[in-house]
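Figure 2 data, in text form.
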Amino acid sequence: MTSPYTPATAARAFALGLAAAALLGAGGAAAQAAYPAKPITMVVPYPPGGGADTLARIVAQKLGDRLKQTVIVENKPGANTIIATEYVARQPADGYTLLYVASSFSINPSLYKLNYDTRKAFAPVGLIAQVPLMLVANKAFPAATVQELIDYAKGHPGKVTFASYGTGSPAHLAGELFKSMTGADIMHVPYKGSSQALNDMIGGHVDISFSSMPPALNLVRAGELKSMAVTTPKRTRGAPDVPSVGESGVPGFDATGWNGLVAPAGTPAEIVQSLNRTLNDIVADPEVEKQLIGEGYEPATLSADEFARMISGEIDKWGKVVKDANIVMN
C-alpha cells in the first residue's frame, strides 16, 4: 500500500536524500584520499643490474616507504626502451603504473616511427637525476684536454675514433653535438653496450668516448682511462676536479642525460602532483643524495610542469642533432 503524500513525508524523504548524497560524497572523497590503495608497478625499460635499474630500485624502495604501499619494479627491456614505453602508454591512467624514463625517452621520437606520441601519451611526474656523460680517452691517446683533442682531430681528420654504446644513444649524440660545435672530424664506432665499448678503449682499439659517468668514473679512478671533461654545463659533485666541456673551450655545450618518472596521459592531476612532491622529497633526502652523487649522478628535481617542458625541449634539441648528423636507424 502506497503511503499518502504529506508535507512531513516529503521533508523526511528530502532529508534522507541529502544524507545519502553526503555519504556518497564522503565515500568518493575517501576513495580519492586512499591513493595508493594497492601496489604500484614501476616499469623499467632496462635489464636488471644496470645503472638506471639500480637507481630505479632505490627510488622504488623509498617511494614505497613513503607511500606505505609496495612498489614493484618490472623490467621490460628491448627495442631501445620502446617496448616498455609503448606498454605503459596503454595502461590505465590511474597512478598504479609508472614508467622509469631516461634520455632515450626524448631521443627516440627522432629516430623511430613510434606507435605513440611522446608528448601526448604521458603525464610527466618528475625528474630524479641528471646523468653527466664523461669524455674519456685511452691512456695512450696523445691529447689530454678538450682543446688538445680538438686540435689533434683537426690535424688528423677522420683518424680519431669515438666509441658509443649504440647508434642513436646519448653517447653517440653527444659526440655528434661535439663535432657540430667544434668542427672536429671524429669517427663514430658503435658498440652493443657500454662495457664492450669501454673495454675496447682500455685496449687502445678506440680513442675516446662520451661515456655514461658511473662506469667511466670507476675506470678513471682505477687508472684504466683518463678523463678530459664532463658534458654538463658546469662541473659535477661526483667529479669536482674534472672540468666541463663548456669551460674547456666549447661554450654552451650540454649533453646531459637524465632519469625521471612519467605516468600514462590522463592520470589525475592530484595523483601526479602527490607523486611529484613525494619524489622530490626522496631526491632531497641526504642519504639518497649522497648515494646518487657517489655513483656519478647529479640529484635534481622539477615540478611536473617543469619536467614536461624539459622533455619537450629535449625532444626538439636532439631532433635537430639527429637531423643535422643524418642519423638513420637500420
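Caption note: The chain has two domains: 40-130+256-325, 133-248.
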